[in-house]
Amino acid sequence: MLTRLPEVRAWQEPLYRDLHQNPELSHQEKRTAGVVAERLRRSGLTVHEGIGGTGVVGVLGNGDGPRVLMRADMDALPVTEATGLPYASAHDGVMHACGHDVHVTCLLGAAELFAQAPDHWRGTMIAVFQPAEEVGDGARGMAEDGLADLVGPVDVALAQHVFPAPAGQVRTRSGPVLSAADSMRITVYGRGGHGSMPQATVDPVVLASMIVIRLQTIVSREVEPSQTVVLTVGSIQAGTKSNVIGDHAVLELNLRTFDESVRTAVLAAIRRVVIAECQASDSPREPEFELYANFPLTVNDDAVTARVAAAFSEYFGDRAQTMPAGSASEDFSDIPAALGAPYTYWGFGGIDAEAFRAAVAADRTRLDIPVNHSPRFGPVLQPTLDTGTEALVVAGLSWL
What we know:
Blueprint: H1 5-21, H2 30-43, E1 46-51, E2 55-62, E3 67-73, H3 100-116, E4 123-130, H4 138-144, H5 147-151, E5 156-166, E6 170-172, E7 175-178, E8 180-189, E9 193-194, H6 204-222, E10 229-238, E11 244-245, E12 248-257, H7 260-280, E13 288-295, E14 298-300, H8 302-316, E15 320-322, H9 334-339, E16 343-351, H10 353-361, H11 365-368, H12 384-397
Parallel strand pairs: 3-4, 3-5, 5-16, 6-15
Antiparallel strand pairs: 1-2, 2-4, 6-16, 7-14, 8-12, 8-13, 9-11, 10-12
């Protein structure tokens, strides 16, 4: 099958450049969805559009056999591109800064290769193009919009992500591989007044500051050291003028965990700390809590991952490596959860291998290697596209 890769490469590369130049934010992926649907139809797949809003599903049946789902996410980020690429985003403030354009292009290529080589496999290949991964509700939206009824039973689900590692590498990992994520907006209340008369006020800036300090002790003093937890307060908004004490403050924080029981305990501890600090400051009102942008824990199935890792080792040789667990988050697992299917999620590199080695040798990876969500993140075209396409085909053929 992969001997046809040069034919696919001929249209993949210009298609990738087009997608990169025309990014669309979460839930707005209408043009991208149209490009995907047209390409799938050209490859001979049965296409279903508008699943979960802008989601697209392509189904390719080839006799009796396993049913394998492969997923790519489509949305971009509200980032202004600074890569300097000749095909940089044509839309100010919107950029494919996480490589979802790579994912779409690779899955379209894999679908074409399966369609061109029916003698090499049996079963059903299901290509899912998911919207709104960046806001954490795209996979859930497709599931709630009847994805299970549309695709039927699924034996295994597969997904991948390009990341800042040498292009040409693929990396797998069993067990927890990406963290759960929860964002929380907390509003605490004070009593406003003149900055020269603090004794007549309850200062919400001081209250918010004490909360930030105390929250850091949750990880250091309430979580077992063997557990990985990241708690970040990313935003504090309070007041309007230097000599005015306002009447409220809004904190926004982000939590990353790798264990559901730890996740529950830390979320409860956050509430406990905030309420206690409000009481200590004599806050006139109870604090308010809003959870949003929740991402599930990504836990790769051991047996599925072992099967894919063995196939990668055979095909890629020493380019197949082990992936470290990451504190990034992803909503892909909501799809196999809704389908009752085991899954695995792997990474593949997108940074020029020579540049990566030079950065490592000079101990300059933090400066020279742009990471996902950076305005400078621009995976090299090749061998990134080839590797991502090959990985999907090799993994799919492990069942098909």
